[in-house]
Give the backbone structure.
Amino acid sequence: MKQRIYIVGTGAIAGYHAEAIERYAESESGRPLLYVTDVNKAALTAFIQRFPWAAPLDNLASMLDEPSREDDIVIVATPPVTHADISCQALRSGRHVLCEKPLAMNREEADLMLKTAEEAGKWIGCCSSRFAGLQITEEVKGLLAHGTLGDVYQVQWVQRRKRARSGIDYQPQSRWFLNRAVSGGGTLMDWGPYDIASLNEVLQPDRVEILHAWMTNPETGHPVEAEVLSEVEQHAGATMRFHLANGGRVTVQYERAACCHGEERSLAEIEGTGGAVSWDWLCFDGQGELKHYSDVGGDPEVSKVTVKNAQLGMMDKPIIYFMQSIAGRETPVILNEQAVFNFSILAAIYDYIRTGEVQIVAKGARP
Ligand SMILES: NC(=O)c1ccc[n+]([C@@H]2O[C@H](COP(=O)([O-])OP(=O)(O)OC[C@H]3O[C@@H](n4cnc5c(N)ncnc54)[C@H](O)[C@@H]3O)[C@@H](O)[C@H]2O)c1
């Protein structure tokens, strides 16, 4: 029987999932059956025109009413405010769920999603896996595993763009990105899931403390329409302490801007007592540079290597890894407890802003 995949929400990101499914079908086990629904009928019609092999359904209820099969997958590709509710309904219908990032609006919702998945005996995965499993990340992990950097004490994760606000500079038709009640937040909710997923993939902490955080919305000459809320942060930062499985502690200086007035910058750098590494963590064009800094007889040395990425494209990864994992293959999929832990770190930055208190996020902790 053919694999069945259901997509809820047929906007911008749904098209990437469908393309990935098409490509995957060509190379692997045959094209799955694809069912789609959207509350906006124009969006649904446009999707079917683009992917005529997909079958439109009236609504979520009719989609989930159909008896489930063991390997059914629902992709939740709607705005964040709907993620927890749609995911839980899909899990309760007996289907695995691959949810878009950010996983949820807050820690409570994320915990409920995990609990529901466990009760249903199904998987809840997160699409924050788009940069997971890169060869360059494996090289960085290798340096850490071999102790090449000595005792690691600091990470700088600084990702600054001047004008890259979702809902304004990027995908302006989706103004919901600017409405906190729908998006959960600004650039942190939008790009933070990838930052935290990559940081966690490299450092593999089991506990993270948010020691300090700040967020703001720089003023610019491109205001959105007066009726559109523009209340979300576009520049944010946090000082975090990552507790590693080997007992080590690392301070992470984190900054993310989709709008700022200073220099654009992308820095992913780990420093230890024996050396440092910085790397192109995104490998957007299929390869990236890794710089290893060391000391040779008292002189600073830097060696540079270009690392090619032999993995899937970033937009293909979430659904393909998820399908492969369900089929029993080892992949860097981000699932269940790890998905909730990653998201909870992000949500805890907002909790710090709200309360002014240090936040602790422990892997596997139950509310
Ligand atoms: N656009 C991107 O490049 C991108 C990249 C990665 C992840 N994402 C994530 O994907 C999700 C969707 O983003 P998008 O860019 O596709 O948004 P979008 O605005 O293009 O599309 C969202 C669609 O969801 C539909 N929808 C809203 N509520 C619904 C409901 N209750 N039931 C069914 N359909 C509903 C809307 O009508 C719309 O067609 C977000 O969580 C976003 O962060 C987007």
Remarks:
- The chain has a mean pLDDT of 95.
- The radius of gyration is 21 Å.
- Residues 8-14, 37-40, 43, 60, 77-80, 82, 100-101, 171, 174 surround nicotinamide-adenine-dinucleotide (CB under 6 Å).
- The CA atoms of residues 168 and 224 lie 7 Å apart.
